[in-house]
Backbone:
């Protein structure tokens, strides 16, 4: 039986388990939209294609499944690029479907043509460095091969976005339905068992250490290694720090939690590693610029290092480890714990670290805290967020420095920092995308500058009745730009300050709730009286534009 290519593409998405697709229709992609009409896949209309791409990334991050976004040719496709670049950096499996002008118009200057012919730009080439695989389907005879390659990239153990671009006339061509039966790619095993030799070496280094420290990152979260890390920490008395993207890997109220490691954090983890540690166990953390304190040699130079990562490219990328294990983090730790139990839990040399951690936290409060003054209201908000929700919540955060220092993430909270390519305007659409997986109390936290990049996506939440709490830190400036111009450019402020709209009137126009927060009494009222679980709320928190974090961005 023959069906249209557009219908086959929709069936392919169903084959991948995609249940939601985010985007905006246009003339060159309408055949696929028409096929979606008869599908169980929910097509979500965003307000801008960039928002659709961020929604797909948020959906993929919280569902642990392939997500999808869709756009028309030319400007529709180019508007997706920032969101897809963010998904690429975060290794999110996002299928991107774009239209293209008919092939018979290539090189003639057809409307929104982006074939690369006749002086037009090459749409697929633009995505080539921010996708794991990208292809324009100009003939149907190799369609099965394209879909197999796309599936491989989406289902890989280190996945990423995939672009499939389909000219308008090809979408309407007929193809054998049996093409779907030619999909041969099978997903790789979820985990590998570490070798006996590497497990014994891991345990030996652990037993020889007096002050081991765990640094867990996003790779540990993707592995689902939370319980294994918690067990390893408690059994062996090991403090745990996280990278920014791994924040919340263990409950941060725990006495063995060092919080987040990074140049914009309070310094507790940094000082403990530098002053106390003799063994560093790096689990799925890349030691990028933030985590490594701009690759500070003095942080790791004195330590023995064990590194476990599923991505071989991360091993020994920044430092040379004494033991490198390429494999699934959860499986590796579970094997280690089983091995240790089998050896009758040989006595370890680790000392009790809680007193040292307590002292360092006191020093942080009194000495080298990243925020010395001016942010008490932000701190109070995050304290409320930690304590007022016993159930699971999600936090999508563009203003990562505040949360990194003030938000002690409980075990049942999910923290999603905007750490992919750090694009402003990410939090709101990503949080909306997550709400299409399952409904949880969800917060999108961002500054007033970033808010104005994406605020119309609030109407997407309204249109689809998705609860959401949008939290604006309102200071009428691009805060970190103003900080840098204050610290490094002799207060020569340019293009950082602006006038905000009346947010109360804006919320009224959206038909959502609004609350202005200027003191702790307002915060108390917010958490006591507002429906933060089932409603859409705009929460406007006033902060001082001339209060800056206590760190320098100078390299």
Residues:
């Amino acid at each position: 039986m023959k069906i249209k290519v557009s219908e086959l593409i929709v069936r392919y998405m169903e084959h991948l388990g995609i249940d939601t697709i985010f985007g905006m229709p246009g003339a060159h992609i309408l055949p696929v939209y028409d096929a979606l009409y008869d599908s169980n896949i929910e097509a979500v209309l965003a307000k801008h294609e960039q928002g659709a791409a961020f929604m797909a990334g948020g959906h993929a991050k919280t569902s642990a499944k392939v997500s999808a976004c869709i756009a028309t040719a030319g400007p529709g496709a180019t508007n997706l690029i920032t969101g897809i670049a963010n998904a690429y950096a975060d290794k999110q499996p996002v299928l991107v479907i774009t239209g293209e002008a008919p092939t018979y118009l290539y090189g003639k200057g057809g409307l929104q043509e982006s074939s690369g012919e006749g002086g037009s730009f090459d749409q697929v080439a633009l995505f080539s460095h921010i996708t794991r695989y990208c292809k324009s389907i100009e003939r149907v005879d190799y369609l099965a091969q394209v879909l197999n390659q796309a599936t491989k990239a989406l289902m890989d153990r280190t996945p990423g976005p995939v672009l499939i671009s389909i000219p308008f006339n090809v979408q309407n061509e007929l193809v054998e339905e049996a093409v779907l039966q030619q999909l041969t790619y099978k997903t790789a095993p979820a985990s590998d068992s570490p070798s006996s030799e590497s497990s014994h070496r891991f345990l030996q280094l652990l037993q020889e250490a007096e002050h081991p420290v765990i640094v867990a990152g996003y790779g540990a979260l993707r592995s689902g290694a939370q319980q294994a890390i918690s067990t390893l920490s408690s059994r062996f008395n090991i403090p745990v720090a996280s990278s920014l993207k791994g924040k919340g890997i263990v409950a941060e109220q725990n006495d063995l939690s060092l919080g987040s490691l990074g140049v914009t954090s309070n310094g507790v983890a940094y000082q403990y590693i530098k002053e106390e540690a003799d063994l560093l166990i790096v689990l799925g953390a890349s030691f990028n610029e933030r985590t490594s304190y701009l690759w500070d040699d003095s942080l790791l130079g004195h330590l023995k290092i064990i590194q476990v990562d599923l991505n071989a490219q991360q091993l020994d990328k920044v430092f040379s480890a004494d033991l490198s294990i390429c494999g699934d983090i959860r499986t590796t730790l579970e094997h280690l714990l089983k091995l240790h139990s089998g050896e009758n839990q040989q006595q370890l040399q680790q000392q009790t670290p809680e007193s040292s951690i307590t002292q360092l936290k006191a020093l942080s409060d009194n000495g080298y805290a990243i925020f010395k003054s001016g942010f008490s209201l932000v701190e109070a908000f995050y304290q409320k967020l930690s304590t007022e929700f016993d159930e699971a919540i999600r936090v999508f955060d563009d203003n990562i420095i505040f949360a990194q220092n003030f938000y002690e993430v409980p075990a049942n909270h999910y923290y999603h920092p905007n750490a992919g390519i750090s694009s402003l305007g990410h939090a709101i659409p990503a949080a909306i995308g997550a709400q299409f997986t399952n409904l949880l109390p969800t917060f999108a936290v961002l500054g007033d500058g970033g808010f104005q990049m994406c605020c119309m996506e609030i109407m997407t939440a309204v249109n689809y009745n998705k609860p959401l709490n949008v939290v604006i830190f309102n200071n009428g400036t691009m805060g970190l730009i103003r900080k840098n111009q204050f610290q490094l450019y002799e207060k020569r402020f340019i293009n950082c300050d602006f006038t905000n709209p009346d947010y109360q009137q804006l919320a009224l126009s959206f038909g959502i709730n609004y609350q202005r927060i200027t003191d702790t009494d307002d915060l108390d009222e917010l958490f006591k009286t507002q429906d933060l679980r089932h409603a859409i709320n705009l929460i406007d928190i006033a902060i001082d534009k001339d209060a800056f974090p206590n760190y320098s961005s100078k390299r």
